[in-house]
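tokens incoming
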């Protein structure tokens, strides 16, 4: 039996505490992968359970029909399994109402963005989804392409303005430095080229707050789906598996109404930067290092790599001695306690987080995860021994037999092959948008 609105639930499963059918959709989310379903959708669901109304989510996949095929036959319902040392828990999430596939039905996506009930368009499109060139500027040719977020948002904004509707909050939930400002600048550049009459209205009527989002969400496996089926008594093709920990820090700068996400534990703050920088350089920086160093040592999963006595000290030093000193902590933000908590999260044996999943898209991740830290120390005449090991491990990975999943895969493999790899990757005019120049030996 497939999960749906009439599925009887076991008593152990927590169900949405509100009338789903009575909610309007207030959010369009572009990039409805596992991360969104385990993170922002859960906060939104909790906010509605706490009494907030009309924050249903219309999910959008830009390319693939997979998530639509998983969720639409289930009335948008899916489960989130949290797995930790204290055991596991199953939660049924009702916030997602339907999933649209932009490549199949672009007008429906534009209509959803232009709907009067919509106040927020949020994004988890991964680093490469922002379509930036090596210089950080919008790649306009790509942005005009069929699976560009800018096309849909641009057309949706044009329709809103024509209908006399208010502007929107565009909420980036990706792991980019200054994600809100970056999205705002790129969106504006797109509008300047394609809808120049909208730029002034965009500036005054729309907002792009920054966010720091954090929850480790490994790709769901067939084994996970089978375990959920046993616990639920129904088949959930959209199941996601995650850790107990979850954090969301959001810049409190919205164009209009927003869900009371604070009722679900989100922090609404004036300045996200200290949290975002700590997360990118410590958590994500350590993750990418674990991926390349761990794969090089024959590990498959994060918890195995962090248990390796040859790896753990490198990761600890990376976080505590290299990344943490570069961060201007907010009052009450304890970076040493943060490093302790991250080591525990990485060690979670109940979460099977594949290193190869983290290793993908290195060209898009490494600048904000490693190079900012390296550049900070370089300016002060200091070295980062752990990050240098990580850089060497990435080059070894690019030279290895592992499949390389990266928009620059071919160029990276070629650049990494020769003795001048450091220079071709990170040097002047190199492949990686670099703030750090290696001392090429
Ligand atoms: C990971 C992130 O795949 C990756 O690159 O580093 O997805 C990480 O798990 C999340 O940012 C945690 O919040």
């Amino acid at each position: 039996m497939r999960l749906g609105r009439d599925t009887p639930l076991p008593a152990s499963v927590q169900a949405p505490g509100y009338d789903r059918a009575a909610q309007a959709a207030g959010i369009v989310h572009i990039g409805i992968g596992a991360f969104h379903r385990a993170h922002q959708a859960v906060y939104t669901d909790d906010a509605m359970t706490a009494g907030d109304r009309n924050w249903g989510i219309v999910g959008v996949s830009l390319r693939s029909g997979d998530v639509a095929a998983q969720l639409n036959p289930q009335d948008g319902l899916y489960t989130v399994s949290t797995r930790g040392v204290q055991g596991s828990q199953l939660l049924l999430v009702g916030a997602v109402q339907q999933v649209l596939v932009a490549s199949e039905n672009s007008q429906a996506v534009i209509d959803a963005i232009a709907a009067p009930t919509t106040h927020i368009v949020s994004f988890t499109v991964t680093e490469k989804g922002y379509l930036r060139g090596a210089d950080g500027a919008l790649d306009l040719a790509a942005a005009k392409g069929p699976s560009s977020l800018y096309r849909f948002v641009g057309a949706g904004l044009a329709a809103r303005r024509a209908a006399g509707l208010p502007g929107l909050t565009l909420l980036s939930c990706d792991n980019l430095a200054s994600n809100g400002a970056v999205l705002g600048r790129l969106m504006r550049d797109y509008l300047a080229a394609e809808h120049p009459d909208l730029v002034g209205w965009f500036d005054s009527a729309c907002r792009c707050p920054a966010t720091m989002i954090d929850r480790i969400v490994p790709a769901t496996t067939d084994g996970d789906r089978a375990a959920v089926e046993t616990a639920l008594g129904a088949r959930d093709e959209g199941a996601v598996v995650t850790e107990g920990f979850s954090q969301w820090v959001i810049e409190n700068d919205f164009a209009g109404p927003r869900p009371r996400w604070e009722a679900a534990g989100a922090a609404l703050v004036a300045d996200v930067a200290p949290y975002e920088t700590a997360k990118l350089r410590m958590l994500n920086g350590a993750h990418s290092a674990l991926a390349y160093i761990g794969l090089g040592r024959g590990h498959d999963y994060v918890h195995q790599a962090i248990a390796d006595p040859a790896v753990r000290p490198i990761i600890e030093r990376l976080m505590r001695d290299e990344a943490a000193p570069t961060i201007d902590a907010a009052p009450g933000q304890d970076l040493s306690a943060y490093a302790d908590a991250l080591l525990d999260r990485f060690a979670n044996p109940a979460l099977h987080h594949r290193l190869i999943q983290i290793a993908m898209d290195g060209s898009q991740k490494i600048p904000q995860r490693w190079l900012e830290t390296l550049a900070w120390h370089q300016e002060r005449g200091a070295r980062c021994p752990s990050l240098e090991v990580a850089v060497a491990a990435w080059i070894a990975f690019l030279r290895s037999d592992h499949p390389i999943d990266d928009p620059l895969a071919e160029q990276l493999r070629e650049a990494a092959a020769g003795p001048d790899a450091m220079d071709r990757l990170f040097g002047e005019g190199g492949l990686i948008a670099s703030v750090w120049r290696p001392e090429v030996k």
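note: The chain has a mean pLDDT of 97.
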